[in-house]
Amino acid sequence: MSVRTTVKSIQDIMRQDSGIDGDAQRISQLCWMFFLKIIDDQDQELEVTQDGYRSPIPKKYQWRAWAANPEGITGEALLMFINGDLFPALKGLSVSTKPGDRRRVVKDVFEDAYNYMKSGQLMRQVVNKINEVDFNNLAERQHFGDIYEQVLNDLQSAGNAGEYYTPRAVTAFMVDRIDPHPGELLFDPACGTGGFLTCAIRHMEKNYVKTPKQRDKMQGALRAVEKKPLPHMLCVTNMLLHGVEDPSFVRHDNTLARPLISWGKDERVDIVLTNPPFGGREEDGIENNFPTFRTKETADLFLALIVRLLKTDGRAAVVLPDGTLFGDGVKTRLKEHLMEECNLHTIVRLPNSVFKPYAALGTNLLFFEKGSPTKDIWFYEHRVPEGQKAYSMTKPIRLEHFQPCIDWWGGNAREGREETPQAWRVTAEDVRARGYNLDIKNPHAVADNYGDPKTLLADLAVAEAATVALRDQLKSILAEALAR
To answer: 3-134 — its CATH code?
Structure first.
């Protein structure tokens, strides 16, 4: 049976359980179960390859001990073990501050995990299906990684959970343009399910990682934080799937909870890749951590933090909404600060449909480098492919749709850029004259011609009069019919 068929079978079994309500709970349930299987498969490999290796999970709670036997405990006994024994033990693991302590990863994942299933028989069926996947088989693991991406994609239809997912074409394009190398400190301060991290890993493995030492160097330079428990769990599992032995660098925390000034030079990073939550507001008191940019708007606070965190010559690619571009007040001060501290060299404007269905608003990809002020900003308008009105669940954005922008980009040095029907340049002086309003429309676009307003109003008046006359005629006919 293929991995895809196995995952579908698991989801079909879960739909029969009365305790699971909707995609978000189903994905959360899948995640902690897959996590235990993946980490147990990794443990068995590490026990062979590393002298003295010990699993972070006590023997009684290792997947092989209670789940691997298809004729093992089931029904009420299985539920009692999971709810009354397994979960309390893993939530209560004692951890050290020692680097590489995988117990911290296990405890963080189970801190907010929950068993939603109420049928022990269905639980045993799910466990047996999961046992069909061998995560030490490279081909199966890579195939499952693709399936996992599809599972994460399902979050887009899982209500508010969709906010944690950035279309993979967008993350892949941003990573490709930033071009991270092993050893460069790469940080996602609002990592969601880990899309930017996985894309960065794939990019580096494809282009630069040739030895185990280079792989260790790459993994050791990754940093991430996620505030919400479900995406944090999904991200940690995602890292395990991508061969990361110690995903403890994915912290379960709120990056904005620290005062901006407390981030020291030793915490600066080379690269920031992120899609910070926008449209939301932070809890009371968080704005006090950002005295110069006092606001509760999450996206604004993250932008201020990113500028602070970048090293000199550090580079960033950030997804931000149209509101950040045209907003005033704090947003104006923030954009002025960004352009003074960084070279905001490119803004890619995306159509409203890229993040559908959970968000249908204009978004932008901002690319900037710290260390020198902005002189010119290039804008590039990404358009939906010809013959397609908008992106959708069935016709999502794909990486090849970005190829015209990649061809125009001019390589890492951004050389040879020219104005085209989709690209234009604006000077920093022009932006200052506009009050730092960056919501600059494509000057090459032909405005839709709807006709002369006076003529349109006259035509509307004629149409309304005709409608009234027709209505009166129908009323007369109806009145005569009723009078007979």
So the answer is: 1.20.1260.30
The answer to whether 310 touches 366, Cβ cutoff 8 Å, is no
Query: How far apart are alpha carbons 435 and 236 in whole angstroms?
Result: 42
Q: If you count DSSP H runs as helices and E runs as strands, how many of each does the chain have, helices first?
A: 18, 9
State if pTM tops 0.90.
Answer: no
In this structure, which amino acid lies at residue 118?
Answer: K
Contact 191/197 with Cβ under 8 angstroms? yes
Fold of 153-433: Rossmann fold (3.40.50)
For the record, the structure tokens of 457 come out as 């109003």
Of 61, 82, 71, 63, nearest in space to 134 by CA = 63
> Could you report the per-residue pLDDT of 23-55, keeping only the tens digit for each?
778 888 988 998 999 899 989 988 998 888 999
Compute CA 284 distance to the chain's CA centroid, rounded to the nearest angstrom: 25
Token digits of residue 57 = 């999970």
CA distance 221 to 213: 13
Q: Which own/partner contact pairs does 213-216 have at CB distance under 8 Å and 24+ positions apart? A: 214/182, 215/182, 215/243
What are the residue boundaries of the structural domains of the chain, listed by start? 3-134, 153-433, 451-484
